[in-house]
């Protein structure tokens, strides 16, 4: 009888040990998963990017295509400002993009220009089927110069290039304007998913290059940033990629 009690106690002890082991194992797995999640939050750089341009040129559609790979033909004009976050890998770096989709309507201008501060890149968009939106490009450049900092990088985008029959702004005119303004130029279609990803990738590369240049010209920064400086070899995205 006494011997049987000992056997019961010993198996009970083994059971508790097993539970303890399982608990530890679960905690370790949880810790591991948490560390992986935390690592997912890691990034080398965070770039704030704004999409600007007249109302209805396709800013929201452009961002929707890039972030969700989807398109809707319904027009819901943006109220104020909205943003999405997307992480990309460029030049061996993990770059987190905070992309702000601004309202093109004049009445939101005070709100939207308040967000220009600290933006490292702008996608300045017009609609190739809308002359007025093209004529406004210079005004938008002035807005950037007024409310942003000098180092902000800008790419000019002529959207809706799938609507060839309704086109009123030729590719050549877009190119000429971009040359005059010193901006890189793309024609895109959010609807047909033409050049959307390329625009973002190119803008990130331009920002990275600019950062490297700034580090090069500031020896203090170079020594301080040893090991984190960007790779000088940029990927050669074709800048001349109209529809
Ligand atoms: N065919 C075609 N239509 C597009 C394209 N991009 C956007 N659209 C349409 O154009 C209209 C306006 O698009 P939005 O993305 O809402 O325009 P927006 O620039 O965000 O306008 P605001 O928010 O008012 O500044 C919508 O009906 C879209 O479906 C495109 O590449 N091709
Ligand atoms: Mg919008």
Automatic annotation (TrEMBL):
The encoding gene: Rab3
PROSITE patterns (alphabetical): RAB (PS51419), RAS (PS51421), RHO (PS51420)
Alphabetically ordered keywords of this record: GTP-binding, Lipoprotein, Methylation, Nucleotide-binding, Prenylation, Protein transport, Signal, Transport
Organism superkingdom: Eukaryota
GO MF term set: GTP binding; GTPase activity
GO process terms (BP): protein transport
InterPro entries: P-loop_NTPase, Small_GTP-bd, Small_GTPase, Small_GTPase_Rab
Signal peptide interval: 1-30
Name of the protein this chain belongs to: Ras-related protein Rab-3
Presence of the UniProt keyword Protein transport in the record: yes
Family: Belongs to the small GTPase superfamily. Rab family.
Coiled-coil regions listed in the entry: none
């Amino acid at each position: 009888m006494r011997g049987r009690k000992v056997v019961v106690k010993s198996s009970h002890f083994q059971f508790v040990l097993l539970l303890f082991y399982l608990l530890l194992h679960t905690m370790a797995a949880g810790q591991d998963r948490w560390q992986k999640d935390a690592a997912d939050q890691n990034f080398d750089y965070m770039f704030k990017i704004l999409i600007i341009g007249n109302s209805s040129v396709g800013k929201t559609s452009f961002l929707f295509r890039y972030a969700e790979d989807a398109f809707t033909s319904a027009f819901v004009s943006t109220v104020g400002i909205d943003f999405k976050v997307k992480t990309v890998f460029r030049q061996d770096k993990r770059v987190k993009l905070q992309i702000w989709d601004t309202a093109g309507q004049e009445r939101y201008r005070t709100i939207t220009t308040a967000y220009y501060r600290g933006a490292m890149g702008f996608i300045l968009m017009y609609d190739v089927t809308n002359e007025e939106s093209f004529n406004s490009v210079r005004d938008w450049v002035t807005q950037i110069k007024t409310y942003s900092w000098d180092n902000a990088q800008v790419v000019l985008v002529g959207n809706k290039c799938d609507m060839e029959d309704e086109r009123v702004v030729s590719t050549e005119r877009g190119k000429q304007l971009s040359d005059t303004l010193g901006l890189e130029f793309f024609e895109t279609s959010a609807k047909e998913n033409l050049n959307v990803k390329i625009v973002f990738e190119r803008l990130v590369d331009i920002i990275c290059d600019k950062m490297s240049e700034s580090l090069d010209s500031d020896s203090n920064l170079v020594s301080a940033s040893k090991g984190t400086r960007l790779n000088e070899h940029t990927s050669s995205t074709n800048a001349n990629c109209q529809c």
